[in-house]
Amino acid sequence: MTRTLLLVGTRKGAFVVDGGRDRRDWSVSEPMCDGWPIHDLGWDATTGSIYAGGGSPWYGPAVFRSDDLGGSWTHSSEGMTYGDDGPKIPTVWNVTPAHGAIYAGVEPAGLFRSDDRGATWSHVAGLREHPSRENPGWQPGAGGLICHTIVPHPSDPERMWVAISAVGTFETQDGGRTWVARNRGVVDCNSPDPHPETGQCVHKLVMAAGDPARLYQQNHCGVYRSGDGGESWQDVSAGLSSEFGFVMGSHPRDPDTAWVIPLSHPEEGRTAPDGALAVWRTRDGADTWERHGDGLPQEAAYVGVLREALSVDRGDPAGVYFGTSTGQLYGSTDEGVTWVRIADNLPAIWGVQAIEVD
Amino acid sequence: MAVTVVLPRSLVSLIPGTERRSTVEAATVAEAIDRLDERSPGVRNRLVDSGPIVREHIRVFVDGVQAELATPIPDGATVHVIPAVSGG
């Protein structure tokens, strides 16, 4: 039986939260990665390595790596540059192992790849060569111009999707040399033209289990589903308390089950609607949604949940976990129906990643 | 020219092999950082941004005077590397 760990990225360091084998009693580590702001953590099960991506206001961007579950760390950003004449990179927003490589999404939006487990990095230049970066131009969202989501194809190393705020979703089918915008059907509700090729503010992109063609996204302007690898999207927000939110998670085995956390209108706080925190689940491919707040604060909980801060483990039933921008960490071991508070006084939580270890 | 470089505690803690106070042979700030990077790879990346320039929130002083990468260092001078007062 495996042990469940939550890798938590915060504004002031990374933490490993150990749920043991029964996911009941949780212990919180000391802060790791020298207290650096950490946006996201990734797990490479093939090597048993944890990767943490972030950036120090003093020392710049870095990807940290631990080969002993957080006991010790190395770090590097060697090669993580757009060149001496290019824009400066303050931080890493996403780190994702895939097919033997490590990918890092950075700010300003771009993608880097490491083939030596994070020691050195090379720019996947094709993404920033997409013509939309020059015309009409890539514009930042409130969190910056950031490549915040990387979704590898599970079996084809040449295919990958990335999401950029506030630009949209892109797919490569040739290992990153060329990219195609995948935003058809996604509304840009902040533009006079509601259906541009790019400019949509995708907040999180996830893939359905066992069906690489089925993608879901939480967007600034709604929740969307695609059945064709992102070539077209349908709005599936009906029934949710709000179209707006940041996080989205998909079930490890059931392609029809996913979770979101709606937040109040983007110009009205971006917190739990009416101060009642709830996770919404679909079990029919996002045709309908059900609200679950049992165990979550239902009064005066004006908390936010940011884009990397929800994760789903591979347990049966699946565990669902999320962190708030005010430092609370919540978990459910019944697929999101009932919830417990795992930790309270953490720094602002930016990323949560559930992993299973022996 | 032998110069003394004083690094911040947070950088020494971040990069194995670095020391708070080191002596290197260097004629400019850039050369001093390069010598430290040769001893402990990663130092340059943490202190120097693309440009190349000293990172925005790092301050370098040569004998108490704020300096840039190209600033000459007199023989026997002391170079202080200090994180700027910022953050929250």
Q: What is the straight-line distance between the termini of chain B? A: 39 Å
Instruction: Using the alpha-carbon principal axes, give the shape of chain A.
Output: globular
CATH-derived architecture of chain B: Roll
What's the pLDDT, averaged over the residues of chain B? 96
Strand share of the residues of chain A? 35-45%
Largest sheet of chain B: 5 strands, mixed
Please write the CATH class name of chain B: Alpha Beta
Query: How does CATH name the architecture of chain A?
Result: 7 Propeller
Order of helices and strands of chain B: EHEHHEEEEE
Helix and strand topology:
The complex is a heterodimer of chains A (358) and B (88).
Chain A: E1 3-10, E2 13-18, E3 27-28, E4 38-44, E5 49-56, E6 60-66, E7 74-76, E8 91-98, E9 101-107, E10 110-114, E11 122-123, E12 146-152, E13 160-165, E14 168-172, E15 180-181, E16 202-208, E17 211-219, E18 222-226, E19 234-235, E20 245-250, E21 258-262, E22 279-282, E23 290-292, E24 310-312, E25 320-323, E26 329-332, E27 340-343, E28 349-357
Antiparallel strand pairs in A: 1-2, 1-28, 2-3, 4-5, 5-6, 6-7, 8-9, 9-10, 10-11, 12-13, 13-14, 14-15, 16-17, 17-18, 18-19, 20-21, 21-22, 22-23, 24-25, 25-26, 26-27
Chain B: E1 2-6, H1 9-14, E2 21-25, H2 29-39, H3 43-47, E3 48-49, E4 53-54, E5 58-62, E6 65-67, E7 78-83
Parallel strand pairs in B: 1-7
Antiparallel strand pairs in B: 1-2, 3-4, 5-6, 5-7
Characterize the structure shown.
The complex is a heterodimer of chains A (358) and B (88). Chain A is mostly beta strands and 358 residues long. Chain A is built from no helices and 28 strands. A 4-stranded antiparallel sheet of chain A has the order 3-2-1-28, with no helix packed on it. In chain A, strands 4-5-6-7 form a 4-stranded antiparallel sheet, with no helix packed on it. In chain A, strands 8-9-10-11 form a 4-stranded antiparallel sheet, with no helix packed on it. In chain A, strand 18 and strand 19 form a beta hairpin. Chain A is globular and about 50 Å long. The model of chain A has no long low-confidence stretch (mean pLDDT 97). With 88 residues, chain B is an alpha+beta fold. Chain B has a single domain, classed as Beta-grasp domain (Ubiquitin-like (UB roll)). In chain B, strands 2-1-7-5-6 form a 5-stranded mixed sheet, covered by helices on one side. A two-stranded antiparallel ribbon of chain B has the order 3-4. The longest helix of chain B is centred in the middle third of the chain and has 11 residues. At the A-B interface, loops of A face helix 1 and helix 3 of B.
